[in-house]
Amino acid sequence: MNRVVDEIPTRIVLAPLAGGPSTPELTAAVSGVGGFGFLAGGYLSPDELAGRLAATRQLTDRPFGVNLFVPGPPGPPEPVARYREELAAEASRTGVELGPARHDDDGWPAKLDLLVAQPVPVVSFTFGCPEPAVLARLRAVGSESWVTVTTPAEADQAVAAGADALVVQGAEAGGHRGGFTDGSEPIGLLSLLQLVSARTELPLVATGGIATGRGIAAVLAAGAAAAALGTAFLRCPEAGTAEVHRDSLAGDAPTGLTRAFTGRLARGIVNRFQAEHSGQAPDGYPAIHHLTAPLRRYGREHGQPDLVNLWAGQAYPLGTARPAGELVADLHAETGAALAALLALAATMPSSPS
Asked: How far apart are CA 117 and CA 137, in angstroms?
């Protein structure tokens, strides 16, 4: 059986990058040079996603995928209400009214209907594992389902549900933790790849802190079928990354995990907001995402990085600002060189340690 991951010439996948950076231009540019681009469906209305789907198809005839957020149940309102009080001074200082702390399903049913009516080769999922019936529905129209996992237990659940591949996300990854729950201890990518590959033969797409051709070669050597990079593409001209975010990505400040901006653990470059509010922010996605949205929008529009979620993986200082097609080509060449060096090293090793 032909699998999509086996037909990616470069074995390079563009991570979805929801929340602004994802654009049809970026997705098409990566797919157009032998990578596999994802279009982020998260945070968009179904109509907006339909428009971006059509725009991507106008830009490329190469395969690409769409990523969706799996909705979870609403959490208790009391911790979110206390956090609103915590942020009152931020709102007063900027003259911005905090948003309504509401729960929503991110347009889940309508987006599934859209992707059944207009299938793409792969639909990937973040924040949970869909019911087996959802994956069967997509399979019936020719779409593979890739499920993001952050623990071996999540991998088991995704396999049982009928996933076609697993996106194995290590703790190094920028942006949100994509797993099913938000309370487990983050596991590094190399450890997680070994743990998951020991319990399933499904293709694994590694993601988290990869950044370079050497990083891609490393995860391929560790058993991954492909590598998904996100932060590495944030400074590409095709990306919709805000200027304050681009500027911060050119530095080398430390990153950290936080719930301060959205109520769900995510890795970003540590700024004042993250440093001051991470200790008080509860588990409360997407209510806190909506609560802080006006503050974050103000920060982007007024060039104030201390109010913006500066998502970035741990290896972000290795990133560069160049066109996506050029970046994929260079990463592919670097990967080949690293794999060739590994093979040359292997040739010098004795057949047995004695």
From this structure: 11
pLDDT 10s digits, 67-124 = 999 999 999 999 999 999 999 999 999 999 999 999 999 999 999 999 999 999 999 9
Residues of the chain with CATH 3.20.20.70: 1-71+106-241+324-354
Q: Is 257 strand, coil or helix?
A: strand
Based on the number of CB atoms within 10 Å of its own CB, is 241 exposed (0-12), middle (13-18) or buried (19 or more)? Answer: buried
Please return the burial class of 334, using the count of CB atoms within 10 Å of its CB with bins 0-12, 13-18 and 19+: middle
218 CB contacts (<8 Å, ≥6 apart)? Answer: 190, 210, 338
How many angstroms separate the CA atoms of 260 and 233, rounded? 24
Task: Please tell me whether residue 346 adopts helix, strand or coil conformation.
Answer: helix
Closest CA to 343 of 212, 221, 219, 225: 221
Q: Which CATH number fits domain 1-71+106-241+324-354: 3.20.20.70, 3.40.50.360, 3.40.50.2300, 3.90.228.20?
A: 3.20.20.70
Q: What is the pLDDT of residues 53-66, one digit of tens each?
A: 999 999 999 999 99
Find, among 218, 214, 249, the residue nearest to 231 by Cα: 249
Q: Residue 324 CB: number of other CB atoms within 10 A? A: 25
Which residues are paired to 148 by β-bridges?
A: 167
All residues at 6 or more sequence positions from 54 whose CB lies less than 8 Å from its CB, including other chains: none
Residue 186 CA to residue 192 CA, distance in Å, equals 9
CA gap 315, 209 in Å, rounded: 5
- Contact between 205 and 185 under an 8 Å Cβ cutoff? The reply is no
Strands (E), the chain: 12-14, 36-40, 64-69, 122-126, 144-149, 165-169, 175-176, 204-207, 226-229, 255-258, 266-269
pTM of the entire structure? 0.96
